[in-house]
Amino acid sequence: MRTDLLTRLAAHAQQREQDGLRRRLQTVTNANGMWVERGRRRLLSFCSNDYLGLAQHPDLVDALKRAADSDGVGSGSAHLICGHRSAHAALEEALAEWTGRERALLFSTGYMANLGTLQALLQRDDVCVQDKLNHACLIDGAQLAGAELKRYPHADVAGAARQLTARPDAAALLATDGVFSMDGDIAPLRELAALCLREAATLMVDDAHGLGVLGPQGEGSVIDAGLSQGDVPVLMATLGKALGCSGAFVAGSAALIDGLVQSARTYIYTTAMPPALAAATLAAVRLARTENWRREKLHALISRFRAGAAQLGLPLMPSPTAIQPLLLGDARAALAAAEALEGEGFLVTAIRPPTVPQGKARLRITLSAAHEEGDVDRLLDALSRAPLGPHV
Ligand SMILES: Cc1ncc(COP(=O)(O)O)c(C=O)c1O
């Protein structure tokens, strides 16, 4: 008899419940900086990716309103039909200049940017070598493209080299997160670039969590590592994290961008992002580049959190970025810790498998320039009382 798909899906959800892995959607009814309201509770959030505190900045809100007044809301069509407006063009130019690249191309989300880029670059006989902890959309992109996906142990350059040398004649893409989304550490980009040069492979960096946070003017992990477009020909980053908006872009040579315009299906067959959003993002880029105090404050808060957490003996991970996970191991322990923190007025999400490997559940604490020193101190105080269980 044929399997009923909805019954199977429900059984899967039930299993997740039993394993302590059920995902629950919660509605935020109000947001004010890092303060959010959920139901009747007012919580201080330590789980947003708004690292520079730009999401509610008046310049962004004004730019969005002004553009909406003149251009309306929807772009009306895909970029290649008639959806590409001057706000998109201006944002692409600013992103290319900021990241030191010839051109940039907007996508509606980071997920779509990675799917489209990998699908456009890779073919069936190619090999795509990826860090084990890469974001899901890089993994999905290689699978969608039909290329052979070879993963290497986290940040293990020798492991990556073994995967590349095993397929010496295949066209090869090595793709890595610049800053790992659930761990916060930075990929060994210089070593990976040298490896790609040696092996004639193309290097792609997803800098969703590095843009705005790393580099002298927030240019991201690639420029921070002293690497250029020649070393990392394919750079992708999102607009929904440090820039406080939504969407993503790929930046690189004019030839790369033209190739994506011709072939990336998630670029071609979808409605262009609202032009008002592009206008707001342009305002965000200006602030992220010029207001160095935001980065300085963020990095000071990171140091303060790490010093305090180390003093308390909390299970810190080796992360120099805004993502400061506490590794608890067991999924239920992570949930219990998140609930205890919520009871003390803090919103910190428990991240469980399959988002992270089995036995590596954690509290993913993120810091923002919108936090104050006192906020970090109060969080540390709550953590000192939270049931964090036996650390792995
Ligand atoms: C490393 C990384 N790449 C890509 C994405 C996807 O970006 P978006 O949320 O814009 O789809 C995310 C998270 O959302 C991410 O953490």
UniProtKB/TrEMBL annotation:
Q: Which InterPro entries match?
A: Aminotrans_II_pyridoxalP_BS (IPR001917), Aminotransferase_I/II_large (IPR004839), AON_synthase_class-II (IPR050087), AONS_Archaea/Proteobacteria (IPR004723), AONS_Proteobacteria (IPR022834), PyrdxlP-dep_Trfase (IPR015424), PyrdxlP-dep_Trfase_major (IPR015421), PyrdxlP-dep_Trfase_small (IPR015422)
Q: In which pathway does it act?
A: Cofactor biosynthesis; biotin biosynthesis
Report what the protein is called.
8-amino-7-oxononanoate synthase
Which NCBIfam families does the record match to this protein?
Answer: bioF
The organism encoding this protein is: Dyella telluris
All copies of domain Aminotransferase class I/classII large, residue ranges:
43-383
EC number(s) from the headed UniProt entry: 2.3.1.47
What HAMAP family does this protein's entry cite? BioF_aminotrans_2
